[in-house]
């Protein structure tokens, strides 16, 4: 048996259970990539790569085991070792360090007992600030040991003991960090709104706005709302830097924002909101390939844009937030490219179109049939002459229809105005709701004044006629 057999068997089993398995090479160096992150997200991303990439599995698992032994997360450490035992049973790091695990578990239990005893004392003495700090210390301990549900509970219990806006701000940021790792984006959205409603100094506002922007971007990305996600990532100030590396890096902002923009915005919007966005340009400089892909899309060089994205597909599959969105994002970008490519033509050969999008005619035809069926593309396929033909529209009939609709709307508006004028001249007033009565009366008096003072009754109108 070869040394690769356990590795292949592990990933064959994961593929059979419909997990994403990346067999190709990536464009990034693992150590350089992971150096952009700190805290738990560093561990989570390494473990994610180890579970999904065949070439990088052993290296990433060894790195994550080394990183976990610097923390108190015994449960995650045991899990990482168990995965490495399946992938590379003969590796020295595949042996569980039971002494470290027992020692760390006892240490966490002792610290927890001490903190709970101190918190109980604080509650007995009704010291609000000490109670708040006691809950925060417990939350930090739970978070460091990998117990995210209890960390969330401890941070949430701080709310009743916050005595200043700064306390609420710190609590909400900690909850946002935990909820992003849990995937609880409803709570992320709620606490972002809570922070925005707080009174903050200009320095706090400047420090918080990048974090809140990317938190909302991740929230919309998780729900598949790519346009809203793009807007928040594009609004992220360049001051983000490495201030939120326990969640996301500046490189991620460029990639997430660029892909969401390509999938949800038209070419003119991409030009104004992405390429001409001086703020977002700083992020794109960190990922030149994304900047080139966006520029190619704007200049209608769709095949070049799609080729660049295809080269980085494996990298995106190994991103912890992006993985499940890669397929819909790529499909949306490709569909938009085909639609934009076809707009200037009344008809185009399938052969030339297949060449432009670097595919064969049969695959392109199936793709076009799907787009036409979904009404993404307003065209028809001439299978005999191998053409994609735009549907002809009767412009004369369309103009007549729009003109008649405009005339009907004008007539209805004129009749409504005449009815109102006659009501006012007859001295009839229709009173609105209580809150709107005064404004309605003022409006009526204005119209009466403009009509010449006193309104005529019905008999006076008939007599004058």
In short:
The protein has helices at 5-16, 30-34, 40-52, 57-68, 74-87, 98-125, 128-144, 148-156, 165-182, 185-196, 202-222, 226-235, 250-264, 267-275, 278-284, 288-298, 302-311, 313-317, 326-342, 350-356, 361-373, 395-425, 437-451, 458-464, and strands at 347-349, 379-382, 387-390. With 465 residues, the protein is mostly helical.
Walk me through the structure:
The chain has a 3-stranded antiparallel β-sheet. Helix 9 runs antiparallel to helix 10 and helix 12 crosses helix 13. With 465 residues, it is mostly helical. The protein is flat and about 85 Å long. Helices cover 68% and strands 2% of the residues. The C terminus is likely disordered.
List its traits.
3 strands; disordered C terminus; 3-stranded antiparallel sheet; mainly alpha; 465 residues; single chain
Radius of gyration, CA atoms, in whole angstroms: 32 Å
N-to-C order of helices and strands: HHHHHHHHHHHHHHHHHHHEHHEEHHH
Strand content: under 5%
Largest sheet: number of strands, sense, barrel closure: 3 strands, antiparallel
Low-confidence stretches: 437-465
State the helicity in percent bands.
Answer: 55-70%
Distance between the termini: 110 Å
Task: Tell me the strand order in the biggest sheet.
Answer: 1-3-2
Average pLDDT taken over every residue: 87
